[in-house]
Amino acid sequence: MMIDYNAWREGTPYDIAALASITNDERALLTDELSEKPDLDWRDVEALRALATPKAISRIGKAAETQTDAAGIHAFTDDIAREGWTPDIESRFIDKLERAEVMGGALDRLYDIAQAHLTPAVRKQLLRNARISHDPAVRYSMGAFLLHLAGHVDSRWVMDTENRPHLLNLNSADYKTYKAAVAWLEDKIANPKG
To answer: 77 near 101, Cβ under 8 Å?
Structure first.
């Protein structure tokens, strides 16, 4: 269960298949080792799923509740699969959207969930993030994702010369420029294409 720097950088997972042949004592030891980490990464979540001990499942649940990075969202998908899209799950998801950061590596996973459960509350939080997120890159990204949902662009990650200037202006220090960018985005969302 060791990952060196190159494997980490390349996104190489743990050898999950090897976990099927370990003893119960080794399973307990690995569960303890992974569960003691203050924050899990996605590999840890996958390994704990494969270990499937009560402690492993409990630790995944803790990551789903407390982490807003890629691993926390990866763990949160277990809660969605188990419970369905309930008001509590939606509320927890909106909280995760609100705390999203580009460096957490969770945006693609958040967008997958949002696209699958595009309720009015989820749409509202996406727009709120595009307007006022503390992370300028999240403002841009959420605006781009909303354009994608409305059919104005083919990708979640807008880099074209037509839309990019407006999305960048969501971070303008000039209030009139910022308000114009928000109005432009709201108009695009209100008038979906296709």
So the answer is: no
SS3 content of the chain, % helix, strand, coil (to 5): 70, 0, 30
Domain containing 121: what range?
87-194
- Separation of alpha carbons 186 and 180, rounded Å: 10
For residue range 63-115, list pLDDT tens digits in order.
999 988 888 998 999 999 999 999 999 999 999 999 998 876 889 999 999 99
Contacts of residue 70, Cβ cutoff 8 Å, sequence gap at least 6: 41, 42, 104, 105, 106, 109
**In this structure, are 145 and 59 located in the same domain?**
no
Return the SS3 of 161. Answer: coil
Q: 102 with 148, same domain?
A: yes
Residue 3 near residue 12 (C-beta atoms within 8 A): yes
pTM higher than the cut 0.85 = no
